[in-house]
Design goal:
Elements: E1 2-7, H1 11-20, E2 28-33, H2 36-45, E3 50-53, H3 62-72, E4 77-82, H4 87-93, E5 99-102, H5 107-121, H6 127-134, H7 143-154, H8 160-167, H9 171-181, H10 195-202, H11 204-212, H12 230-250, H13 255-267, H14 270-278, H15 280-293, H16 297-305, H17 309-319, H18 324-332, H19 346-361, H20 375-381, H21 387-402
Length: 403
């Protein structure tokens, strides 16, 4: 049974939550606290899976509470549920908050958000990795791109297009900007899947504040795992995103799926970056084993962590509220047959693009065995005859890279 802690200084609202969530009593053990200090006492007395807090509270506000929860209990999912917050309070809570829901919030929306977060936790079996991922504030960026984005937002002559182009090349920046734009921080109703849409929606002033004041992006400075090559990972994911988008377009997927194909392709190996950054010694051993034995990195990850980089990345992106199409593609990009669906979609494009990149365009990943096409999955979809056309797209991409 999952343990959920709700925090709000309005007794009537807590009573309303108790009534509206009564149907979840068989699945959730719920505790209700009237202030931040009371919430911390409850956390000291027992373990919780999720904390849902109001923002404006006397004494310790929601931002302060969740920052403290993140420091003490990084594995806990942290959600803000608030009706009104000023700009600075929102910025103060960004690093500690996984998702932001606005009041009034439909009970079904609240239930779905908590259930999704709890379901994603099942992807990770290693408690230490669970804490690492849930505790992340940012995903480190390629140093050159980090330097460029800082320079651009400080420039008086920059443009949203230039900023979007830089963010669109980096896993960390892309994931974080999509987390923010799809939260209720900015009042958006719907889901944004591309960096271009996100940057245009947020506007230059907000982007500048996020980068310069809130420091939502960080530079890759942590000691690297042995055999880990950030530049190769960046090149592979950038190319996979471009190829996935081309494949989705060639299969006449919807525009949403085409947009998601690029983003999911760019982010499909974000779990590698998370592991190499936060547990470099353990991940270095994984890469060394895969290289020596000629096995796939994911097989060695499973042996070491009980999960793979695909699930690690999917857990983080899902926790940050990215859309289901992107999270599904990241989760199953090595084993698409495990997913539901009988038609070519974002997952199909990312799976094929990842394999063809390593076979037709780039090198084997980190010196290990190259990933293989899930032929049973392609047969199930009835698209094995499209492989030749997809390989031609990969060849075209290779020519463009060489140029």
């Amino acid at each position: 049974m999952k343990r959920i802690l709700f925090v709000d200084d309005e007794p009537k609202l807590l009573e309303g939550l108790k009534r509206s969530l009564r149907t979840m009593r068989d699945e959730w053990s719920m505790t209700f606290a009237g202030c931040g200090e009371e919430a911390l006492k409850a956390l000291e007395q027992g373990s919780f899976d999720v904390v849902v807090s109001d923002m404006r509270m006397p004494g310790m506000d929601g931002a302060q509470l969740l920052n403290e929860v993140q420091r003490r209990y990084p594995h806990i999912v942290r959600i803000i549920l608030s009706g009104h917050s000023d700009r600075q309070m929102i910025f103060d809570s960004i690093s500690a908050t996984h998702q932001f829901l606005s009041k009034p919030c439909e009970p079904e929306k609240l239930k779905a958000t908590i259930q999704r977060a709890c379901a994603l936790r099942e992807l990770l079996k290693d408690d230490s990795i669970l804490g690492v991922v849930a505790g992340l504030q940012t995903i480190p960026s390629v140093p050159t791109l980090y330097t460029r984005i800082k320079k651009e937002v400080e420039s008086k002559s920059t443009s949203l297009k230039v900023i979007a182009d830089i963010i669109n090349q980096d896993m960390g920046m892309t994931a974080k900007i999509l987390q923010l734009v799809n939260s209720a921080y900015f009042g958006l109703r719907g889901n944004i899947s591309t960096v271009e849409q996100a940057v245009n929606f947020l506007g230059l002033d907000t982007i500048q504040a996020l980068v310069l004041t809130t420091h939502v992006f960080s530079q890759f400075t942590t000691r690297r795992a042995s055999a880990f090559n950030l530049d190769r990972l960046w090149e592979a994911n950038l190319a996979t995103g471009a190829l996935a988008r081309a494949i989705a377009r060639s299969e006449q997927c919807t525009q949403l799926e085409i947009d998601q194909a690029y983003t999911a392709g760019l982010l499909h190996d974000v779990g590698i970056l998370v592991l190499a950054t936060n547990v470099p010694d353990r991940y270095g051993a994984v890469l060394a084993k895969a290289s020596t034995a000629g096995t796939q990195v994911s097989d060695e990850e499973l042996s070491e962590f009980g999960t793979t980089h695909a699930e690690v990345g999917a857990y983080l992106l899902g926790l940050w509220g990215l859309c289901d199409g992107i999270v599904e593609a990241v989760t199953y990009h090595h084993r698409p047959r495990a997913a539901l669906g009988e038609a070519v979609n974002t997952l199909t494009a990312v799976h094929v693009a990842n394999v063809l990149y390593h076979h037709e365009v780039g090198q084997a990943p980190m010196g290990s065995a190259r990933p293989q096409l899930d032929e049973a999955y392609l047969e199930r979809l009835g698209v094995t005859g499209r492989l030749a056309a997809w390989r031609e797209l990969a060849t075209t991409l290779q020519r463009e890279i060489v140029k």
